[in-house]
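Incident review: delayed structure delivery

Summary: a single-chain prediction request sat in the queue longer than the usual turnaround. Root cause was a stuck worker, restarted by the on-call engineer. No data loss occurred. The affected request and its eventual output are reproduced below so the record is complete for anyone auditing the incident later.

Affected input:
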Amino acid sequence: MNVERGALTEPADAARPRNYRVIAVVAALALTMEAVDATALISALPTIARDFGVPVTQLGALITAYLLALAIFIPLSGRLADRFGSRTVFRGAILLFMASSLLCAAAPSITAMIAARFLQGIAGAMMNPIARLVVLRSTPRHQMVSAMSWLILPATLGPIVGPPLGGFLVTYVGWRWIFYINLPIGLAGVILVSLLFDEHRMDHRSPIDFPGFLLSGLALSCLLFGLQFATQDGDGGVAVILLLAGALTAAAYVRYALRHPHPILDMRLLELRQFRLTLAGGSLTRITQGAQPYLLALMLQLGFGMTAAASGAIVLTIAVGAMITKLLAGPVLRRTGFRTALLVNGVLAVVGYAIVGWFRPGWPLWAMIPVLFVSGLAMSFQFSSYNVLAYEEIPPERMSAATGFYTTFQQLLLSVGVSLGAVALHMSMASAGRAVPAFPDFTVAFTFVCLISASATLVNWRIPRDAGAQMGGRVARNADD
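Output delivered after worker restart:
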């Protein structure tokens, strides 16, 4: 295996060339395991509560423990990859995810299961940004669109496939199999990573910023939990306190990071125009991406009266659209360029999901399914483009810092999307005096999050016309600065 040190050039060893598509698929396999597991558990909560003899309201800790670990450890992932090697850390993260899955499945009590879920969160925090880092360092720049199209699939498939899969396993074989199925998938991932991944490690490694690690972890944890409490009735005061504490701590971290030579989350990356614009545009777009699985599942089950299995089968249409993206993204971007594609496709994505909010029982399936398909395809295409464009101007020695920074905001904004969707739904219900959401409430919620995401158009307009030329996009004749 080649070990690259210092400045990184082309990723693959000339004597042992790597297929970047295979590497991207293997990385996506591991991330899909993590994404599906996280969402499948939601379907099993009532059954777990019954088996352990506790109120289901106590099981929120199984979700928050995982989110807490993500918030704390995602910023640390890039530094660990630089110090110990990206292949070593990624493989170790899969092994930790397998071990913690086994602990979850064998847990004798809720307390033990919560601790195991925290370990799973640590593993998940290492897997996502390092998978992105491995693909960035293993793929020729002009083929980056194709590779990144695979990496965004888990984020799309997880919320869609997870709940119906969890419901199937709970119904027919038991909730512990939600965790057992991770073992063969993880084992295959470890073997493939060992065989296919190169070991990327930096010679000039900066020391780990432990004060910044603690400060950023505290800020992100307060923000995530504040958003969660904001969606629960009677917890508004707690939500305000946590969000305020998170905002103040985040401000303190920004001041600290701008003075530190090697902060755990490098705010100076925002000085790079293209990284800053794609982060902003992607963050706004993720509001809808985060909200739509939550809103759509509720609408199909509560509004249309579908079972979890039936609604899951319909929503799989979104996943099919997302998978088609990997075939279309490269040719489309080479023909139109990133800026034009982001502008046109961004409008298509949010309009598609806004139309979903107007679904009614009178709509035939042949009308709903194409809307879901196009919406899934357009949203997946948008993130494929953002995820490539963000790293075009990042120098090799700052790539691990950029992946940790980008993934942190990605996780945070998906949570923001769920929370804003839930808040909009509850506010519409309250204004109409309804205890159960009706179709007009879902229309309001979908429209609200889509309007926020539509504002990304203003950001996309500022992206240079020649942006992405090195990454497989069209070279503009008259590029804007």
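Verification: The beta strands are 3-4, 199-200.
Action items: add queue-age alerting; document worker restart procedure.
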